[in-house]
Automatic annotation (TrEMBL):
This is PAP2 superfamily protein. The keyword Transmembrane helix applies. InterPro entries: Aur1/Ipt1. The chain crosses the membrane at residues 45-64, 76-97, 141-159, 171-197, 239-263, 270-290, 296-313.
Length: 327
C-alpha cells in the first residue's frame, strides 16, 4: 500500500462512514451542533500532545536532500490528510457500534478474563501489582504519548522511511488496527469494558473497580474525565469526535503493538522502548478499567499474526518471481 492508495482508501472509508451515520442515526442540526462543540473540547486535549512534534519535524526536514524532501513531503501530505480523515471517520463509525450490535459481550469477556487469571479479574491483579504506586503519573503515557503514533504514525513513516515494502506493510497494519480491530471485531464483540459494565448492564459486578479507581485518584485524573465524557456522550447519543465506546478488542493495545513492531524493524536498539511502551499501554488499559485483559491479548495476537504473514509474503515473493521467470 502506497501513501496515495492509503489516502484514496481513507476517502472511501469516510464516504461509507458518513452514509452509515445518515442512515442509522439521521442526526438533527441540534445533534450535529452538539457534536461539533464536544469535538472541539476533545480535540483541544489531543492537539496539545500532537503539536509538540512540530519542532522535531522541522529539525528533521532541514537535513533532507532536495530530492528526498520533495518525495517525502508528497507522502507527508497524503499521510496528514489521510490520518485526519481516518480519525474522523473512525470516530463516526465507533459511535454506531451499539446501534448495529447492542452491547452484549461483556459477561462473556469478563468470565473469560477471570478464567484466564485464576478466578480473579485482571484489574484486581493490576491494582495489586501497582499497590503503593501513584499510577496517575502515567496517565499522560496512555493519553498523550499514545496519541502520537495513533495519529502521526503514517506521517512519521512518510518523513523517515524509504523502504517501500516496509511502508506498505505498516500502512496495512495501521488500517487493520483501526478498521479490522476497531470496527469489524468490535462489532462482533460489542462491549463496553469493566469501567462501564455496571452502568450498561445494571449490575454491581465491578463495584469494587469503581471504588479502587476512586481511591487511587484515577477517577479524578484525565482518564477519569475522559471516561465520564464517553459515557455522557453515549447516554445522550452524541456523535462527537472520540466519543464512541468499545472494549473488545483494544485499539489502544493494537496501535502500541504496531508501533513496537515498527520500532523493531527500523532499529533493534528500539526494541526495548517499543516493548516497554506496549507493556505500559496494556497495563494501563486494564488498570484503568477501560479493557479486559483479553481485549489486549487478542489485539496483540491479531497484529503480530498479520505482521508475520506480511513479512513472510515479502520473503516468498522474490522466490515466486524467480519460478515464473524460469518457467
Amino acid at each position: 500500500m502506497s501513501f496515495r492508495k492509503f489516502f484514496v482508501f481513507v476517502v472511501a472509508y469516510c464516504v461509507v462512514a458518513s452514509a452509515l451515520i445518515m442512515w442509522l442515526r439521521s442526526p438533527s442540526m441540534e445533534t450535529l451542533a452538539l457534536a461539533a462543540a464536544k469535538t472541539e473540547q476533545y480535540g483541544s486535549i489531543m492537539l496539545a500532545s500532537s503539536i509538540r512534534l512540530a519542532p522535531l519535524g522541522l529539525m528533521f526536514l532541514i537535513f533532507l536532500r532536495r530530492g528526498d524532501l520533495s518525495y517525502r513531503l508528497t507522502n507527508a501530505a497524503f499521510a496528514i490528510a489521510g490520518a485526519i480523515l481516518f480519525q474522523t471517520a473512525f470516530s463516526m463509525t465507533k459511535t454506531l457500534i451499539p446501534s448495529i450490535v447492542p452491547f452484549y459481550a461483556d459477561p462473556i469477556l469478563a468470565s473469560v478474563d477471570e478464567w484466564l487469571h485464576g478466578g480473579e479479574s485482571a484489574w484486581q491483579l493490576a491494582h495489586r501489582w501497582a499497590a503503593g504506586i501513584d499510577m496517575t503519573r502515567f496517565v499522560p503515557v496512555y493519553l498523550h504519548v499514545w496519541t502520537i503514533p495513533a495519529v502521526a504514525l503514517p506521517l512519521t513513516i512518510a518523513l523517515t522511511d524509504t523502504d517501500e515494502r516496509r511502508i506498505g506493510r505498516f500502512l496495512s497494519l495501521y488500517v487493520l488496527c483501526w478498521i479490522g480491530l476497531g470496527n469489524l471485531l468490535a462489532l462482533a464483540g460489542s462491549s463496553v469494558g469493566p469501567v462501564f459494565y455496571d452502568s450498561a448492564y445494571g449490575t454491581d459486578r465491578f463495584g469494587h473497580l469503581a471504588a479502587a479507581l476512586e481511591d487511587t485518584g484515577m477517577t479524578s485524573s484525565l482518564i477519569g474525565m475522559t471516561q465520564y465524557y464517553l459515557w455522557d456522550s453515549y447516554v445522550t447519543g452524541n456523535l462527537a469526535f472520540g466519543s464512541g465506546i468499545s472494549a473488545f478488542p483494544s485499539v489502544h493495545v493494537g496501535v502500541a503493538t504496531v508501533t513496537a513492531l515498527y520500532l523493531f524493524e527500523r532499529n533493534k536498539v528500539l526494541v526495548l522502548p517499543g516493548i516497554l511502551f506496549l507493556a505500559a499501554i496494556m497495563f494501563l488499559s486494564v488498570y484503568s478499567g477501560y479493557h479486559y485483559a483479553i481485549d489486549g491479548y487478542v489485539s496483540i495476537i491479531m497484529i503480530v499474526g498479520a505482521w508475520a504473514y506480511l513479512v513472510r509474503a515479502r520473503e516468498n515473493r522474490p522466490e515466486q518471481v524467480r519460478l515464473v521467470v524460469s518457467a
